[in-house]
Amino acid sequence: MSHRLYPKKETPLDYPIDPLIEKRWSPVAFSSEPIEPEKINSLFEAMRWAPSSGNGQPWRVIYATQDEQENFDRLASLLDEGNGYAKRTYLLLLTCALPRFEDKDRENPYWQHDTGLGTQNLILQAVAMNLIAHPMAGFNKERAHELLGIPVDVEPMVMIAVGYPGDGEALTDERWVKKQQQPRQRKPVTDFAFRGKWNSKVKSQI
Ligand SMILES: Cc1cc2nc3c(=O)[nH]c(=O)nc-3n(C[C@H](O)[C@H](O)[C@H](O)COP(=O)(O)O)c2cc1C
Predict the structure, then answer these.
(1) Where in the chain are the domains?
(2) CATH fold of 19-180
(3) Considering the entire predicted model, what is its pTM?
(4) What is the dihedral of CA 24, 118, 82, 65, to 10 degrees?
(5) pLDDT digit string (tens) for 53-70?
(6) Atom of ligand 1 nearest to the CA of 139
(7) What is the rounded distance in angstroms from the CA atom of residue 8 to the CA atom of residue 14?
(8) Whose CA is nearest to atom 1 of ligand 1?
(9) b/e code 10-32 from CB counts within 10 Å (16+ = b)
(10) Where is the Nitroreductase domain (predicted)?
């Protein structure tokens, strides 16, 4: 099967970084082409090997492909209207996080942090396989509990659209076209990496 190349977006680097990190961005133009099952397994395998506090592995994932329409539509129905571009993709995921350690009777202070580490592993693995992956907080968490049977003490975190790159022409909403085309922007390194101690020229939030 011929797949479109990973879409290139200009990344204005100040210093060199690994090409995989440079390549990743959050496109919105997805194809509905199937993803090979072994690639889907590799996404989860990459997540599996993320570091986590006390090796607590607080991440969980609910996923569906367009091959199981009912499951896919249930997940897709949670998306905010503004994230409707994701309904075109082949694979939708919802990451969830466990606030407590499973084997210790206490809260895991790093539950969200570590779920984010697992999520980034999954996203970078997608990019390494020429799949695009777009994380989205814009979905209905309450309905996610109801529709997907997520226990009350487990927190839905982000939905992620994963798929082969698609044709930008199929983007039906002006907002999505803008998202696909907008230039990448970041703060300079000196705004967040401080040598020795806090840089008092950089304001805190109080
Ligand atoms: C936790 C989280 C929530 C996000 N929520 C949304 C979302 O609801 N809709 C969307 O289009 N993008 C969403 N994004 C993507 C960000 O807008 C994007 O990562 C950011 O603008 C940087 O762009 P880049 O990923 O292309 O480098 C989210 C990203 C993260 C990490």
Answers:
(1) 19-180
(2) NADH Oxidase (3.40.109)
(3) 0.96
(4) 90
(5) 999 999 999 999 999 999
(6) 8
(7) 18
(8) 137
(9) eeeeeeeeeeeeebbbbbbbbbe
(10) 21-80, 100-164
